[in-house]
UniProtKB/TrEMBL annotation, chain B:
Residues 110-335 form the CHASE domain. This is histidine kinase. GO terms for molecular function: cytokine binding; phosphorelay sensor kinase activity. It comes from the Eukaryota. It catalyses: ATP + protein L-histidine = ADP + protein N-phospho-L-histidine. The modification 4-aspartylphosphate is found at D753, D902. It is found in: Endomembrane system. It comes from Elaeis guineensis var. tenera (Oil palm). Cytokinin receptor related to bacterial two-component regulators. Functions as a histidine kinase and transmits the stress signal to a downstream MAPK cascade. Residues 403-673 form the Histidine kinase domain. The lineage of its organism: Eukaryota, Viridiplantae, Streptophyta, Embryophyta, Tracheophyta. The chain crosses the membrane at residues 42-61, 344-367. It holds the Pfam family Receiver_CRE1. Residues 156-184 are annotated as: Disordered.
Length: 159, 998
């Protein structure tokens, strides 16, 4: 029963991953990330992703405040560019492709000092980010369940 | 006209000046425009000058004409004056003569020989001698005391000249009506007269005022004396009277005036009718109509008396000539002037106008030329602008291509990655096939994109060749390994031969060199179904000098025995000499330099290129036949890129091809010779350890000497001494001989080609040995050399047969030193300690295991991922989140073996951090070197140099160069790829271990 559940969970996970790939939310870098996970670092992916979320949240907050705080004339586009570069770097590292693409557009808008474009991009970025976050949370929940299920089964054998 | 031209020129000048000013305002000063304005100013000045010259010409010509006119007038006037004077003088002389006559015949003779009648007759008959006189008369000097006697003697009274009524001008002038002369001291009554003036007989000449003065002056001077002009008696013409005094014979020589007066006996007078005189004279002269002549008596200069002249107002200048009538007291002048206004100086006008017109025309031509120049310059500027724009568009195109291809590549990588993963899952055969097809297509697409990108780069001239040291043999082995799958699959021979004279290390662009060869070999593989593909590399000089047959590999002997040619596979090939016979390098002797000219030929036995397509083979996107792409695929861009690359390398490409026989492509390329011990040589894979096989002996058994030569060539590269046996008998005897010997002549390996003497004959070779052994001709097994089979393809049954036949192993062609080495190692058991583990991951693990690696990245996620990736291969990873932290951690002594450095970091980027680390290391190294600090202080390391690898997202040449410049050792692109990390890291750690071992 439990083993069956684990298998089903794994199938669900694969489906979800396939969907995310299909939608272009994730790319092969995420797969590489998963390949890096092995016995020596069992929670590698979730660790990386949680760091990514933490960092990204910070960056998003900064971006939001940079764009909303000041009036449109004295927006610090250079700072926005730096933040976006950071976000882009980490996104490409974890394979968050759509977020990265939106970042690109955002950066282009900031390079042209296009305030309204920046605002629009920020909205899209936040939307993409939320979507990625919920989906990845979902994925990790499944993963946890699977590990728990598998662990429950294999635990005696391992020890 | 001139003014109008000037005006327009001026306005133009100003206009252009304005334009210039405007331009100065808007743009930076443009020399050409300024030059145009200067030219225009000069032109304007020139035209002005020309016009002035024409005016000057007019003035000078006019002045000349006037002067000539004046001169003519003067000449004419002088001529007239002189003639008048001459004629007058002639008359005067005659009158004088007459006076002498009277003195001689009237006073000298007693009684007088002359009476009135005689006188009148004589004078009348000699009138022609005095053409200007209208009459002469002789008056006697009569004193008052003699008057009465005189009057009585002549029978008439002496009469006064004027009548009482004071009207001298009377029509009928008769002396009878005249009053008798009043009493005076002296009288001068006329006694003789010419017929024309007979009316003055008996008139006292002294009574007329003019005549009186005349008489007084004449007798005092003894010369002819003139009166001022007055109206002559009777004729009423203006005239002058010439008077001569007649003296009696006893006049002393050189008399004084008193003596003269004393000696005077009478007076001879002649009246000159000046108007008729001048009239007559002028009639004799030509062109009398053109000038007006006036004659004046100017004795009283304030009131000149006109003696002759019409009142016609002449025009222009007056010329005055003096006329001397022989009377010093009287002055006469002749005034001449032209009758008509001087005509307009037409010649001057036409000449000057002509000059002006020519000047203006020339000016106009120049002006048009200037305008044209200006226009051309404008056009030129415009064209230049357009050119800049076109270039910008070209750059944009290239950028677009680069971007697009990049953008396509990214998703394609996804597709390929996913396909790879899909193929790793459980698939049935069909699915596997589908997936493989999809992957192959994807790879082809990537290759196409790369080629298009290359073409764009070459077209925009932005492709730059590297100049790094590389090993030609390495590159060729690499290319061969790429195509080994395909050639084995098709069962065609693929071989490479590099001449011994080609230096090991060359400096050039290995990537592009490889690209050309890959392209050519790829084409050959594509179009060859059976036979062989043979790549050979020689020096150009070597080929040039090898017209002899010494080098078998260079020169194929064409005399094949039966159906078999002496080529790699026994197939007929085209004469490859023709492919390079037109090369520049062969036609002209190359200058001696350190340049290495390589000649690479790729020869195949494929379908060949149709004759009609051979001319356009190097044109982009042009294939031999449109059906080609259907049959064989490909875009046809490869050869054109190859040609461009070869051109860039300073070489030429050529080919010779015969349909049905095959093609041979040749190209030359110029490289520099590199030193062998360059540490920074980029290697595709490490050199096979040559030393393992040094001094071994081998025997190549092959019926085809070409193939045997190439096998020998590869074995020699591993340091193995090789003999060749072309037939089984000599091979067997060689083996036997070697077996019986031990030591120096010992044979370590025998390499037999699978098709040594025809299909599958190589497989049967060991059987002969076995027979020998059975016959007892050979010693036991252990002395027998290891047998290897060289094959292009093997069927599974043949694989099974191998062991039983007596072969130790097979070597699949194409032969590569690394592959041969691996095979030999396995079979002979040498170098097993260092035998390479299979798979790069394992190799990487072994390389990185236990290594201390510092990862520097400001991005926590990236840091984590990089650390995770490196940890996977067993490295111990430390992280730093900024360049400054990294510098602190890398202060010698430290424990790190390598450092991965992100380039884009806030505050201090990777370049700067690396620079600082390097300078830190240099300082420490200098300290150690100079002995100021012992190496113990710095962890027993004599020379600090930590390998720093850049991590960057954009892998472009410029970034790479920047990396190297600031002291980095290599770079890896993000996200990490196994292969790339391996090739980057292997370089350092392998050489590091070698160093530590030695």
């Amino acid at each position: 029963m439990l083993g069956l559940g684990a298998a089903r969970l794994e199938a669900d996970m694969n489906r979800l991953m396939a969907l995310l790939f299909h939608q272009g939310v994730l790319d092969e870098q995420f797969m590489q990330l998963q390949q890096l996970q092995d016995e020596s670092s069992p929670n590698f992916v979730s660790e990386v992703i949680s760091i990514y979320f933490r960092e990204s949240e910070k960056l998003l907050k900064n971006l939001r405040s940079l764009l909303h705080r000041a009036d449109r004339e004295c927006t610090d586009y250079r700072k926005i560019g730096i933040h976006l570069n950071q976000l882009m770097g980490s996104s490409s590292s974890v394979g968050a492709k759509r977020v990265r693409t939106v970042c690109l557009a955002f950066r282009a808008a900031s390079e042209h000092n296009n305030w309204s474009g920046c605002l629009r991009s920020l909205e899209v970025l936040e939307h993409e980010y939320c979507y990625l976050k919920t989906k990845l949370h979902e994925l990790f929940q499944m993963e946890q369940q699977r590990v728990m299920a598998a662990g429950a089964r294999y635990h005696p054998l391992l020890s | 006209m001139v003014v109008c031209c000037k005006g327009s020129a001026l306005s133009r000048l100003w206009k252009s000046k304005d334009q210039q000013v405007q331009q100065l305002k808007h743009y930076q000063p443009q020399n050409s425009k300024g030059g145009g304005n200067w030219r225009k100013k000069f032109l304007f000045l020139g035209i002005l000058l020309g016009v002035l010259v024409s005016i000057w010409i007019f003035l000078s010509m006019n002045a000349n004409i006037i002067a000539r006119r004046k001169e003519t007038l003067a000449n004419m006037c002088d001529e007239r004056a002189r003639m008048l004077q001459d004629q007058f003088n002639v008359s005067m002389n005659h009158v004088h003569a007459l006076a002498i006559l009277v003195s001689t015949f009237h006073h000298g003779k007693n009684p007088s020989a002359i009476d009135q009648k005689t006188f009148a007759e004589y004078t009348a008959r000699t009138a022609f001698e005095r053409p200007l006189t209208n009459g002469v008369a002789y008056a006697l000097k009569v004193l008052h005391s003699q008057r009465e006697e005189f009057e009585r003697q002549h029978g008439w009274k002496i009469k006064k000249m004027e009548t009482e009524d004071q009207s001298p001008v009377q029509d009928d002038y008769t002396p009878e009506k005249l009053d008798p002369s009043p009493d005076q001291d002296e009288y001068a009554p006329v006694i003789f007269s010419q017929e024309t003036v007979s009316h003055i007989v008996s008139i006292d000449m002294m009574s007329g005022k003019e005549d009186r003065d005349n008489i007084l002056r004449a007798r005092a001077s003894g010369k002819g004396v003139l009166t001022s002009p007055f109206n002559l008696l009777k004729s009423n013409h203006l005239g002058v009277v010439l008077t001569f005094a007649v003296y009696n014979a006893d006049l002393p020589p050189n008399p004084t005036p008193e003596e003269r007066i004393e000696a005077t006996v009478g007076y001879l007078g002649a009246s000159f009718d000046v108007p008729s005189l001048v009239e007559k004279l002028l009639h004799q002269l030509a062109s009398k109509q053109t000038i007006v002549v006036n004659v004046y008596d100017t004795t009283n200069s304030s009131a000149p008396i006109k003696m002759y002249g019409l009142d016609v107002r002449g025009a222009g200048e007056i010329h005055i000539s003096n006329v001397d009538f022989g009377d010093p007291l009287r002055k006469h002048e002749m005034h001449c002037r032209f009758k008509h206004e001087p005509p307009l100086p037409w010649s001057a006008i036409t000449t000057s106008l002509g000059v002006a017109v020519i000047v203006l025309l020339v000016g106009h031509i120049f002006y048009a030329a200037l305008n044209r120049i200006e226009k051309v310059e404008d056009d030129f500027r415009e064209m230049r602008e357009l050119k800049v724009r076109a270039e910008a568009a070209d750059v944009a195109k290239s950028q677009f291509l680069a971007t697009v291809s990049h953008e396509i590549r990214t998703p394609m990588n996804g597709v390929l990655g996913m396909l790879q993963m899909l193929m790793d899952t459980e698939l049935d055969a069909t699915q596997q096939d589908f997936a493989m097809t999809a992957q192959a297509s994807g790879k082809a697409l990537i290759a196409l994109i790369n080629e298009v990108l290359d073409q764009a780069k070459i077209e925009s001239g932005r492709l730059e060749l590297e100049a790094v040291p590389f090993d030609v043999r390495d590159v060729l082995d690499n290319v061969l390994s790429l195509f080994s799958d395909k050639s084995q699959g098709k069962g065609i021979e693929l071989a490479v031969y590099v001449s011994d004279r080609v230096p090991e290390v060359l400096i050039g662009d290995p990537g592009r060199f490889r690209q050309i060869i890959t392209n050519l070999v790829g084409n050959s593989v594509k179009f060859t179904e059976e036979g062989h593909i043979f790549v050979s590399v020689h020096l150009v000089e070597e080929v040039k000098s090898s017209c002899d047959f010494s080098n078998q590999v260079i020169r194929d002997s064409e005399d094949g025995i039966g159906m078999s040619y002496n080529t790699l596979s026994g197939f007929h090939i085209v004469d490859r000499w023709k492919s390079w016979e037109n090369f520049r390098m062969f036609k002209f002797s190359t200058e001696a330099s350190d340049a290495i000219n390589l000649l690479v030929t790729v020869e195949d036995t494929g379908v060949g290129i149709p004759q009609d397509a051979q001319s356009r083979i190097f044109t982009p996107f042009m294939q031999a036949d449109s059906s080609t792409s259907r049959t064989y695929g490909g875009t046809g861009i490869g050869l054109s890129i190859s040609k461009c690359l070869v051109d860039l390398m300073g070489g030429e490409i050529g080919f010779v091809s015969k349909p049905g026989i095959g093609s041979t492509f040749s190209f030359t390329a110029v490289f520099q010779e590199g030193r062998k011990n360059l540490g920074d040589m980029r290697r595709h894979h490490p050199d096979p350890p040559v030393s393992d096989f040094q001094g071994m002996r081998g025997l190549v058994v092959d019926g085809r000497c070409m193939r045997a030569e190439i096998t020998k060539h590869h074995l020699q590269r591993l340091g193995i001494h090789v003999d060749i046996s072309l037939n089984s008998k000599s091979a067997l005897s060689g083996i036997l001989e070697a077996c019986n010997l031990s030591g120096a002549g010992h044979l370590d390996m025998v390499l037999v080609d699978k098709e040594a003497w025809g299909e599958g004959s190589g497989l049967a070779f060991p059987r002969l040995l076995a027979e020998f052994r059975q016959n007892g001709l050979m010693k036991p097994q252990e002395n027998l050399p290891k047998m290897f089979l060289l094959a292009t393809s093997l069927s599974p049954t043949e694989v099974d047969d191998l062991k039983s036949a007596g072969y130790t192993d097979t070597m699949m062609k194409p032969l590569r030193p690394s592959m041969i080495a691996a095979c030999l190692r396995k079979a002979l058991g040498v170098g097993s300690k260092r035998q390479r583990e299979k798979g790069q991951a394992m190799a990487l693990r072994s390389l990185l295991s236990g290594k201390q690696i510092l990862v520097v990245d400001d991005n926590a996620v990236n840091r984590k991922v990089a650390a995770g990736a490196l940890k996977k291969y067993g490295a111990e990873v430390t992280c730093a989140d900024s360049g400054k932290a990294a510098i602190q951690m890398l202060q010698p002594p430290h424990k790190f073996d390598a450092c991965f450095m992100d380039i884009q970091m806030p505050e201090m980027d990777g370049f700067e951090a690396t620079r600082q680390i390097r300078s830190m290391e240099t300082k420490v190294n200098e300290l150690i070197k100079s002995g100021e600090a012992s190496s113990e202080m710095y962890g027993n390391v004599a020379h600090w140099h930590i390998p720093i690898l850049a991590m960057t997202a954009d892998v472009i040449q410029a970034t790479y160069e920047e990396c190297i410049r600031c002291g980095m050792d290599d770079y890896v692109s993000k996200p990490f790829e196994e292969e790339q990390i391996y090739s980057a890291v292997a370089h350092f750690f392998e050489s590091g271990t070698v160093d530590s071992v030695s």
